[in-house]
Amino acid sequence: MSNAVQPGRAASLAEKTTLGVIAGGAGAIALVDIVLLISRTITLMAADDVVVPRMALEQDPAESIAAAPGVVDAAFDSVTITAEGLSASPRVLLAGADVLASIGAIGLCVVVACICVRLFIGRPFSAAVTWGIGTAAILVMAGGLLSQAVRAGAHTEITSELGLTAVGLPSFEMTIDLAPIGWGLALAVIAGAFEIGQRMQRETEGLV
What is the pLDDT of residue 62? Predict the structure, then answer.
């Protein structure tokens, strides 16, 4: 019995073409996200006027909508403002929230590209891929949740700095979206599946 390591089955031409398209698309998305993230950060830190979307309102009534047939009541719960002359602190928090919200998607695209490359050469299971998927799971969960907390902190500072509580904005409000936890757990399960596949691959190679 030989313990020589045998290469896995190479992908067919059609499979290689599909994997190449997916890997290229994932890499392109990650690159575009990075470029846009850098551009948004520079603009946010350097611009005189800063657009801040989705700032919470304390139930500002919307009479015209409430007057529509079949509508019992209506209220605005968020507003987009353009702030002039913001200090550095809320700008840094807004930029940090943007970075945290983006790193999960960027990391996931990089992992997808790496998996495609491994499939391309016929050896999808490796420690690097397993750790990459696990890292992406952590980035998606941590980045998604922390970005919400940091953005809420930025909105609090903006509200305080501009004195917006007097016009209907709460001093602090944070809405928690738990979707990043679900996505992170799904990726963790996939990482576990790749770890099992890696073990089975080693055992199969040992039998050749």
Answer: 73
- pLDDT for residue 4: 40
Across all residues in the chain, what is the average pLDDT? Answer: 85
Dihedral, CA atoms, 140, 146, 148, 153, nearest 10 degrees? -160
Residues of the chain above pLDDT 90, percent: 43
How far is it, in rounded angstroms, from Cα 95 to Cα 132?
Answer: 25
H helices within the chain, ranges in order?
Answer: 13-46, 63-66, 88-120, 127-162, 179-207
CA dihedral 52, 54, 58, 64 (to 10 degrees): 110
Q: Other C-beta atoms within 10 Å of 37: how many?
A: 18
User: Residues with Cβ < 8 Å from 78, sequence gap 6 or more?
Assistant: 53, 54, 55, 56, 57
Gap between the Cα atoms of 96 and 100, Å rounded: 6
Check: CB of residue 198 under 8 Å from CB of residue 127. Answer: yes
**Residue boundaries of the structural domains of the chain:** 13-50+86-207
- State residue 207's pLDDT score: 56
Let me know: does 148 contact 175? Beta carbons within 8 Å. yes
Q: What is the pLDDT of residue 10?
A: 56
Question: What does the alpha-carbon distance between residue 122 and residue 125 come to, in Å, rounded to a whole number?
Answer: 9
Residue carrying structure tokens 């987009």 = 80
Q: Residue 88 is encoded by which pair of tokens?
A: 């550095």
Q: Residue 56 carries which side chain, given as an amino acid letter? A: A
Q: Please calculate the CA angle 120-185-96 and round it to the nearest 5 degrees.
A: 90
The H or E element spanning position 77 is strand 75-84
